[in-house]
Each structure stands twice: as C-alpha cells, then as structure tokens.
Amino acid sequence: MFSTSCSDFLDITPTSKYTTDNLYQTVDQAKMSVNGIYNALVDEALYGRNVTMYYDVDTDVSQITGGNSTGKPDGERRSIAHYAFNSATKQLDNAWTAYYAGIERANILIDEIPKMELYNNGSEEEQKELKRIYGEGLTLRAIMYFDLVRLWGDVPFKTTPSAAGENFDLPRTPRDTIYDSIISDMIKAVDLVPWADEVDANERLTKGAVKGILARVCLHAAGYSLRWNLETNDAAGMKMATRDDPQRIRELYTIARNQLKDIIDKGIHKLNPSYENVWKNICSYKYDSEYRENLFELGFYSTLLEKDESGSYGYYMGPKSAIESKWGHGKAGVWAMPNFYLSFKSGDVRKDVSIMYLKFNSNTVTYKMDKGQPTELFDITPAKWRKMWASDTPSSYTNFNYPMLRYSDVLLMFAEADSWLANAKTDEAEAALKEVRLRAFPDDTATINAETYPGDFEGFLNVIIDERAFELAFEGFRKFDLIRWNKLASKIQDTKTEIEALKACYVAGGSGDPLLPYNGSISWRVGTTFPRSVYNRDNGGDFVEVDFSGVKPSTGTWTVSSWLNNKFADGMAQFAIGFEENRTELYPVPTTILNVSPSLTQLPSY
Fold this sequence. Notes:
Blueprint: H1 4-10, H2 27-41, H3 50-53, E1 62-64, H4 67-70, H5 77-81, H6 92-112, H7 117-121, H8 124-152, H9 175-190, H10 207-222, E2 225-227, E3 239-241, H11 246-266, H12 275-283, E4 294-298, E5 334-336, H13 338-343, H14 350-354, E6 355-356, E7 358-359, H15 366-371, E8 373-374, E9 381-382, E10 402-406, H16 407-422, H17 427-440, H18 445-450, H19 457-472, H20 478-484, H21 488-503, E11 533-537, E12 545-547, E13 559-562, H22 567-572, H23 591-594
C-alpha cells in the first residue's frame, strides 16, 4: 500500500512544531488539518491534472493530443490515456501514493477530532465547527477511496492512522465492502455539515455537496465495473458486472434518488441562467453565491502558480496558445472528439463554451497569436477553462477551480435514479432533464418543452447518457460514467466508426478533389458535405471571424485555413489504440507498489 519512502516517513520524528499530540487543541488547528486534506486533492497526480486529463480520456468526447506524430503510447501519460498501459507505466504510482497520503491525513483527523475536549464540551459554535470539520474529513476520505476503486477496483482499505512498526502490507479489500463503508461515512457526514446558505461561500464542502457526491458514489456502487474472483485471481473470469445483490443495488439507487431530491427540494442550489457564466465565473475567480450551481469547487491557489498548488485547467485542459501571446501558454493536452463537436445541435449554447476551434500560436502574423486562427477539425480543444476569461494572464499553471459537483449533474443523476427505480421515464425525471436542456437552448424553449422521450428506462437512459456528454464534457466524469453503464466498449467502437465515416468524407488526393457527403450515425448530419477549408478574417473584434461554409466570402479580406483533409487520419490514429474490453477498464497496480506489498495481488493478465 505504501512505498518504502512512505513507510520510512512514518518512523521519522516530525520537524514541525505540530504533532498529533498537540495539533488538535483548538478549532483553528482542526481547520489547518482539514485544509491539508483538501490540499492533498490538488496534487498534480490527482485533480491538479491527471485524474481529469489522463484518466478520463480516451472516450467518445475526448482524447489525449498527438496522433501519429507525437501521440503514440509513451510509457506514461499517453499510454494511460490510450489504454496502452502496464504495471511499469509512469505516473500511475504517483496517483496511488498521493491518494493514500491524503487518506492518511484524513484517517488522523477522523480519529482525533472526536477526542478533542472542544468537540464535546466547547461552545455551541465550537462544537458546530468541529462537527463540520469531522464531516468534511469523512467525505474527503470517501472521495479518495471512491477514486481508488474507480481506477484500480479492489484496493487496500485502511481507516485508522498509521503507527511506527505497523504492518502496511495489506491485501485487496472487495470494492463492495469499501463502497458500503464510505457510503455509511457520507450518510453520517450529511448530518454534520451545514447547507450552503448557512455559512460563508467558499471552497468547503456543504450539505448539498455531500449529498450529491454521496449520490454519485451510490450510482457507481450500483453500476458495472471490471470484476474478477479475488481468491483465484484468474484472468479468465474477468468481466464487466454489477455486484451480485439486487436488493442492495435497489437500496443504492434509492439512497441516490432521495439525496438528490433533498437538494432539489431545498431550493438553494439552482442553474445559473447562463451556461457561459458558470465558466466565466470560475476563470475570473468569482465564487457564485447567487445561484450556487457549483455545489463544490476544489480550490486552487498559488501566488507563484506552482504545480501541486495551482492546476492545469486552462493550460493542459484548454485552448492552445503560445507563451508569447497575450493569453500566456496553453499546452492543450486534450482534444475534443470531432464527432462529438459535430453532434451538438444548432442553438445549443454549450458547444462554443465547451469547445474551441481557434488556436493562438502563430508567430507569422501577430494578430493570430492574440485573436486566433482556426484549428483543423481533429485539433479542436476543450475550452470551459480558458485564459481569455481570466482577470489576469497566467503564464502556464492557473488558479482556476475545479467544480467537482454542479447542479446540472444533480438534476441528471436524479433523472437517472428516479427512472431506474420506476423502470420507466417518470414525470419528475423528465422535468429534471428538461431543466438542463432549457438552459442549453435559450432561444428554442418551445421546442425543448415539446420534446418527447422514450417511456422505457433503457430508452430514456440513452437520452440521459447523451445529455450528460453535452452538459458535463471534459469535467472528469465521462469515462467512469460509461464504465458504470457498461457502455465504454461500445462508445469507443462507435467513435472509431465515426472517425472512419469522417475520413470517408474526403478523398486522398489533390486539394481540388471533391468531398463526399457524410454518412455516419449523427442522423441530422447525414448528407452534409463538410468543407475541406474554412476562412477567417480580423474584423476588429476580440477574435477572428470564421466562415465555415467552405466558400470564400466575396467581400473583405479572408485567409484560408485547412479544416478536413488527410491530416485528420493521422490525428485520430492513436485513439483508444490499446483498449481491450474486460481488461483495460481498470489500471494494473504499479510495479513500485507491488515490490513493497507482497500481499497485494496484481490485476489479472498483467
């Protein structure tokens, strides 16, 4: 469970003036401790970058950048993203150790807080604050174990502080045992933390956030995951399956549904009427206390913009920009999938908020670094976090927060859980879905209100699956959602089929060769002829104007840019190249961890 260095650390006398013997004396000291647990999550190996930007790709909405030219499996991040990993793949061990380091901090806090004199005999305000901190500790530990289970399945499970001389060589604990334990902890935490309208607005967990994350954990605990017999560790038995307990599965959906309904009925969390403003607020460091759509934002802050304190949102996850541009350096390490971009319907405001078709890295014409130039279709990037909305211009890393739970997610999870329990679409589930869609189409509310959806659960679930893609793309949930629905393999195959359909639209030849009409699975696009090139001009605005018709406008000065051509195949060539159903839905335990943990078994077939 722990590497040698971690074990050695436990035997070293701390150099800090604080130890567990004198740290938990005051409320302020307890706050310092819980802040240390929050801080564990912003590590670059976790939510500072890797969890949302390596482990959530390749899917039907995104992939890691590079293609054949620079994107082949590389023994680290690209191997992780392309499912071409093994137990020696670099950076897997970073996440493992970072999670367990954070869990150790949480274990200490959870053990110490109830022992404090002030916890039982302090003033009303002191007791209330310490109970909140205790609930935060329970929830943060639950989040870390939840992530470990999603990434590695059955993992070592330890809920007590470590002590010198203790045996750290722990075997795998069945994931259902872990799920049931952390769900119990979070149910306890719900009663310990306040609602958001009862406290100052900041990046701390509140009741709605705990309820919503609890619901998310329950949906995963009830859903599919890659399972095998822990006793035999036989690869032949590996398969995607749910827990073998239908009654418990129903209980989990019921818990999820009821927790989400509580959030909705409370009425203090709402959708921001503007989808764009949700992200502008984050990028301008504004915490929205009016709508409170973001029930929990993981806070990033470093005055020097250093990793493990600042994050890669807007840098690695964001538009591409040169360091010389007015926007600072944007590495753009993730691509939006072209078929996903093309599947947004006209009028959906989420499309241009979520995806950027401009890049800011040309030094041949100055305005292009500041106002942009069109990318090619394969080179479009996520853009929810973008430096163009920042009140300053971060050079690389940013202090943009990560919204771990938004109210739109609450609505969509409720729609799913409520309809699952009824085994059919319900009126409440439909209303929750439409609330999300009405914001997405502000100029077409009559059409959305008139929409009808399949009445059976599976048909309605497919609508929710699509809607979660459009609403929550690039936020770190897609791959794990697809796994719990047992849809990852089919969505990857569908995406590969769509890549071929788009490749078939152009002819490998000269620039004058005709393009062929699209004949893929996006029904409303069938018959469309996509342009080989697009045109752009500086019209005096903040960014270049782009004409996607494929025909150069007859007036004005326009510059041509490639859009769809032979480079597309190269860009898409490495997408999910190593994926194997019933094998790569989980990661192998890193070799460095196995070397110091003889009782820990490897993922079968690795």
